Amino acid sequence: MDYPDLLNNLTAVKSGQIIAIDGPAGSGKTTLAGQLQRDLNNVLVIHMDDLYMGWQDAFSARLTASTINNILRPINTSIDFKYDLHDWHKNLFTKSEVIKSNQIFIIEGVSSGQSQFRPYISKLIWLDVSDEIGLTRVLARDGIEIKEQMLSFQLAQREHFASELTENAADYRYEGVPKTLLS
């Protein structure tokens, strides 16, 4: 399925529903989320990177509980909500976003399609990428100085995806961002 077909299928998603885009680091989740935000109406993107309290938090029970209680549950019950954004440079939560629940939500990032989130998700998109290409993309984007953390993160994400079977749960699967999006 190419991008126009994906977009056509996602037009059935209504206000107050959630699309999750999951996959390994460097697979193009943020790129796809941004394009969908431009092409669909009334969409807000929530980046998992803004919720993680550092590298190891992407797979923590704290993150799972916080995301469910502060974001997913309020969306599903049509309640406006607020969530805190983590500043990676200061290593603390520095600001809050107040969000109206009357829009479509895209939650993108590693672990956004985990099993405990799935009851709240209307559509799950899986973007895959090899470790080598993912590492190259992340280092080009974020700098070579994070290489050691990224190598450890890649190991942790492989373990996470193997136990969560996220790819198998996805409604749509792609090897990287759908090609017609990048043309």
UniProtKB/TrEMBL annotation:
Stored InterPro entries: P-loop_NTPase
SUPFAM superfamilies hit by this protein: P-loop containing nucleoside triphosphate hydrolases (SSF52540)
A Pfam cross-reference name: AAA_18
Annotated protein name in UniProt: Unannotated protein
Organism expressing this protein natively: freshwater metagenome
Organism lineage: unclassified sequences, metagenomes, ecological metagenomes
